Amino acid sequence: MPNLTIVLSEETSRRLRRAVKEIHGSRKGALSNLIEEAVNIYLDKLEEPKSPHAFRALREGRVIAEAKDLAELASKLRDLGVEPRNVRIVSTSGLRPVIEAGFRAKAI
Amino acid sequence: MIAFLDLTPTFGVAIENPLLGKSYPSEGEVVAVVDTGYEGFVALPRDIFHRAAFDELQLERRSVLLADGSSLSSEGTYGTLVVPDVSLKADGFIETYGGLDEVIIGTEALSNLRLVLDYCLRRLHAEKYP
């Protein structure tokens, strides 16, 4: 197995050693095991595919076109001869009915 | 341009309406404020929303809660945010509501980026998330 040299801050190093002791005690290789597990969790998260997302054009509640992005949806509507003003565009990930505005939004 | 203006983080952006082939501005970029308190994608003042022809499409409505506890009604549809400096082109809900006088980029749009705000050095670093 490759041997890596890494540098950690005092604080991280202290937290790491405390966690190793609590989880694995003072077993040989415990520090490496915990680091390998933590790095794999982080890498899995980075590599996790984002949920597939699509846009749909609806007319009278019926899907008439679907595409992975708006440019493709516009192109499909053109090909179908559908006027974009006459369809409802929705996202498969939905729209939150209520959201918070930041401090830049002002009451009127 | 990605930079602090005074203490406010800003991006140079363009907003596109691919369904009607319109964009704002028609050339170049407009300064947009990064607002991490806004949970939406992009919010536009009414005049910009109109100039990008979003108001010609069928609009969805929702509520926007303000910091003072009151709420506003928002309307919008789907469009494209372009941030040339980080080669970002992302689709999302583009809305407008009363009292807005600047283009706002919210956390939903920021979820496409790795963003570092260094207020000590007044430096802003953004890169597209892989």
Q: How many beta strands in the DSSP annotation of chain A? A: 4
Q: What multimeric state do the chains show?
A: heterodimer
- Structural category of chain A is alpha+beta
Helix content of chain A: 40-55%
Order of helices and strands of chain A: HHEEHEE
Description of the structure:
The complex is a heterodimer of chains A (108) and B (130). Chain A has 108 residues and is α+β, with helices and mostly antiparallel strands. Among the domains of chain A are: 10-47; 55-91. Chain A is 41% helix and 17% strand. In chain A, strands 2-1-3 form a 3-stranded antiparallel β-sheet, covered by helices on one side. By secondary structure, chain B is mainly beta. Chain B has a single domain (2-128), classed as Acid Proteases (Cathepsin D, subunit A, domain 1, Beta Barrel). Chain B has 2 helices and 11 strands, in the order βββββαββββαββ. Chain B has helices at 46-51, 107-110, and strands at 2-5, 8-17, 22-24, 30-34, 42-43, 60-65, 71-83, 88-96, 103-105, 113-118, 123-128. Chain B has a 6-stranded mixed β-barrel with strand order 2-4-9-5-8-7. A two-stranded antiparallel ribbon of chain B has the order 10-11. In chain B, a hairpin with a 2-residue loop joins β1 (2-5) and β2. The chains are: A alpha+beta (108), B mainly beta (130). At the A-B interface, α3, β3 and β4 of A face β6 and β7 of B.
Secondary structure topology:
The complex is a heterodimer of chains A (108) and B (130).
Chain A: H1 10-24, H2 30-47, E1 55-59, E2 62-67, H3 70-80, E3 88-91, E4 98-100
Antiparallel strand pairs in A: 1-2, 1-3
Chain B: E1 2-5, E2 8-17, E3 22-24, E4 30-34, E5 42-43, H1 46-51, E6 60-65, E7 71-83, E8 88-96, E9 103-105, H2 107-110, E10 113-118, E11 123-128
Parallel strand pairs in B: 4-9, 5-8
Antiparallel strand pairs in B: 1-2, 2-3, 2-4, 2-7, 5-9, 6-7, 7-8, 10-11
Keywords, please?
heterodimer; A: alpha+beta; 3-stranded antiparallel beta sheet; 4 strands; elongated; B: 130 residues; mainly beta; Cathepsin D, subunit A, domain 1; 6-stranded mixed β-barrel; two-stranded antiparallel ribbon; 2 helices; 11 strands
